[in-house]
Amino acid sequence: MTAARRRLAAALLPTAGDEGGEPLSARGWRATVVGMHVISAAVWTLAVASVLSGEVTAPGEQGPVLAVLGGLALSYVLAGAPAVAGGHPRRALVHLVVVVVAFGLLGWLAPGLLFLLFLAYPQVWFVVQGRLTGVAWTVLLAVASAIGPVSGAAAGSTPLEVLRESVVSLAFSLALGLWISHVLRQSAERADLIEQLERTRSELATAERERGVLAERERLAGEVHDTLAQGYTSIVVQAQTAAALLSADPDAARERLAVIEEVARDNLAEARAVVAAFRPVALDGSTLVEALQRLASRFARETGLAVRVDTSALDGLPALRTDEEVVLVRGAQEALTNVRRHAGATAVVLRLARVGPQVSVHVEDDGVGFDPSAVTASGLEGLRGRVAQVGGEVDVASAPGAGTRVTVRVPGS
């Protein structure tokens, strides 16, 4: 096929989805199609009544004119209506050819029926739903319907007058058709945009759910590390100590077993709190100071170290959010766990202080110390992440042979 023929085919052949598509919702488009069918039936019925009354045809021409109208009706039912609904380019082509031929015949046989162009022109644009194709078929329809009246010069009109009326009708039809095409194209673009927005919203919702799942996993991991894992570690250590003391010092062994039971009960309560996302058991029904004192007391019983709680620099505890209190308690727990595992200390001071609205917990030991720049502790890194979520900070001050001080600060209010 030559380039010229391809261009001609592109202009005349309707294509599915050419520059548009259904401009409304499925329900709205169905209502539009049904409206087009009703209007087509009403206008066609009016045309048949005009022919039967003899108002628009000469004697003896009623039969051929009714045959042309019958062909139009049959074409619309079999090809035009499915094409208006969309997605039937071959049927659209058949109906357009029938419409052009039929109006060419009506121009010769019954020019008075050319009011049917009022229906035919919009049908062209709804069938093709494309600018270039719509212009081509509108021009063909206008030329075909004007040949008869111009050649026969209807009674009381000169060919020039008939031609002028045809040109005006064509211009109006093109303007209407281009507007219809523009509306269809804009509606299709809006439909595509809405679909994209809905798809983006769905993707964002999925991403938000995944982010929430990840955050919950991180929360659970942090809670397990800060509470359950430390409790189980304590249970293991106490069980080993109790086993070693069982024969030599039964009373001391029973004390260790009591500590094991206490830690196990606390761990069970902590597990329930983690699952339910409650505040730590240490804070349940207690103030922050009471929770830290209880934490220090149990740590002393577990390790046998001298643990002192210092609140002299507190100067009144400001109102703290629950998450800030949780961070301070978890910070103290993590620091004490590191003392147990690594410090080799003989004494520990747990200090609660306040500077303005800022509240801090310091855990200081007299152990072996270490070089903070050379050691990365996963527990402290996790604690830094937790503290950062509430706008706080963690400081670790230590040196080999000089003990360690871990400070957790929260901004307060």
From TrEMBL:
Gene Ontology molecular function, alphabetical: 4 iron, 4 sulfur cluster binding; phosphorelay sensor kinase activity; protein dimerization activity
Location of the protein in the cell: Cytoplasm
Residue ranges constituting the Histidine kinase/HSP90-like ATPase domain according to the UniProt record: 327-411
Coiled-coil ranges from the UniProt annotation: 183-217
Classification via Pfam families: HATPase_c, HisKA_3
Catalytic activity: ATP + protein L-histidine = ADP + protein N-phospho-L-histidine
General function of this protein: Member of the two-component regulatory system NreB/NreC involved in the control of dissimilatory nitrate/nitrite reduction in response to oxygen. NreB functions as a direct oxygen sensor histidine kinase which is autophosphorylated, in the absence of oxygen, probably at the conserved histidine residue, and transfers its phosphate group probably to a conserved aspartate residue of NreC. NreB/NreC activates the expression of the nitrate (narGHJI) and nitrite (nir) reductase operons, as well as the putative nitrate transporter gene narT.
The protein, known as: Oxygen sensor histidine kinase NreB
Source species: Geodermatophilus tzadiensis
